[in-house]
Design brief:
The chain is about 50% helix and about 0% strand. It contains two helices and no strands. The model has no long low-confidence stretch (mean pLDDT about 80).
Length: about 50
């Protein structure tokens, strides 16, 4: 299901901003890994505290 959204993003060539707040940095990193596994480039991801 995530890939379908990414395909739409690629076809439209529009900026996509996703923001989230997590209880721990480890959980944020796990979410980032999930996004990368779904096809998001690591260059497009930023995690911070």
């Amino acid at each position: 299901m995530v890939m379908a959204g990414l395909e739409a993003y690629k076809e439209q060539n529009m900026a996509l901003i996703v923001a989230a707040r997590f209880e721990t940095f480890d959980v944020a990193q796990a979410a980032a890994v999930s996004l990368m596994n779904a096809g998001v480039s690591s260059d497009a991801l930023h995690t911070f505290t």
